[in-house]
Amino acid sequence: xxxxxxxxxxxxxxxxxxxxxxxxxxxxxxxxxxxxxxxxxxxxxxxxxxxxxxxxxxxxxxxxxxxxxxxxxxxxxxxxxxxxxxxxxxxxxxxxxxxxxxxxxxxxxxxxxxxxxxxxxxxxxxxxxxxxxxxxxxxxxxxxxxxxxxxxxxxxxxxxxxxxxxxxxxxxxxxxxxxxxxxxxxxxxxxxxxxxxxxxxxxxxxxxxxxxxxxxxxxxxxxxxxxxxxxxxxxxxxxxxxxxxxxxxxxxxxxxxxxxxxxxxxxxxxxxxxxxxxxxxxxxxxxxxxxxxxxxxxxxxxxxxxxxxxxxxxxxxxxxxxxxxxxxxxxxxxxxxxxxxxxxxxxxxxxxxxxxxxxxxxxxxxxxxxxxxxxxxxxxxxxxxxxxxxxxxxxxxxxxxxxxxxxxxxxxxxxxxxxxxxxxxxxxxxxxxxxxxxxxxxxxxxxxxxxxxxxxxxxxxxxxxxxxxxxxxxxxxxxxxxxxxxxxxxxxxxxxxxxxxxxxxxxxxxxxxxxxxxxxx
Length: 521
Hints:
Blueprint: H1 51-59, H2 65-78, E1 85-88, H3 90-101, H4 105-112, E2 121-125, H5 153-160, E3 164-169, E4 181-182, E5 186-187, E6 189-190, E7 193-197, H6 203-210, E8 216-221, H7 227-233, E9 236-239, E10 260-265, H8 268-278, H9 294-297, E11 306-309, H10 321-336, E12 340-343, H11 350-376, H12 387-396, H13 401-421, E13 427-431, H14 449-456, H15 463-469, E14 473-480, E15 486-492, H16 498-511
Parallel strand pairs: 2-3, 11-12, 11-13
Antiparallel strand pairs: 1-3, 4-5, 6-7, 8-10, 9-10, 9-14, 13-15, 14-15
Helix pairs in contact: 2-3, 6-7, 11-12, 11-13, 13-15
């Protein structure tokens, strides 16, 4: 698991490069206390490139896959204060990079025909996916030695695309909160301000992308876990329609359909291509309409869209003024691009929906724990779990089959309501969260339930709706508040309409570019 860099002689394939990287500072630097510098990181231009640009440079021989990997590893180690990396698979990735680096130009070009992202460094979330011969902990001590005996279907597709997986990113235990903090791996910090959460449960993925470690990273979303950290870290994140991206082979659906997998990225085109390369059914799955060539969708502006603006918190609680500013700025931008925005929202049985969500997530967690108990031949202990998750596990043991069946029925009825609403509108625009990124500790799973719920209610009242209904939804980074913290805007679309979301996202990215808005590292 070494972290040594490649010897001298690396290529500088851009005429101008960024300044050498600096280690992160904990706290705010002042004029009297300038930040301490560290040795220059390899390939300073690396952080300017998205995944497609990196792949192009590797394919054309302007840098090697090994140089790209060493640039990613160097940043993961130099910026370890963020704590985005849970597990290091550096040696395995180096072997892959060396094989690609030994290829000739013609051989690389031939492989790129089927593997368009060949050699691009990539990280998996440490939750819900398996890579043969490596551990996936689910952020839980009871799973800290759970070595996979197979590759998930999604991992197979990432590898087929040419991605070089070198790490797994941090997640809260079982993804059960909207921050990324765990007893097992500690606190994952927001690169924009280290006192704040990077969001969750894909907070490690978002922090890694925001910190320039990778241009895109695998993420999953069971209640907002792609969109929330994307919003908090100033990135793009799209949760796809239910069933579009494979979850198998062992389990073909997560949390009664709530969970979906995709990526968090800086550029819209990276998300579009990665979704295009990984979408589609696997053996045993049943999916709906396939969006098709998503990378083509971002090359042309969308038609004039009718957008419903949903500002009010579904629970009736206040929405923070910064989040309202963000969604209203997004609405104005959409109108300036020729789209129509109207105040409207679907009428949903929110209490029933979120109650059913609690049943689905706890039951799913219990099923995972029981499978692990069978594998290890022993019973899980209370000290191997976060207190709030242990509480949920005990409650789940008392749930009935009728409650689980009813929960899925509630989700289906909500989906019907949103389908009918989206018969009148093309998209729904809303805040991503009801409050900006919280301070670390505010949504930890290691606190009394009553204090947790008060803060957690601000995290996913808007996002979780579309996990329950199965519709695609995205967070677009269009706003930064007065404290310099990013706040996204959420757009949701009809089932299977990822192409519409991506086309709009690309239009917004061009109108209000965010790629050069980066935290000071």
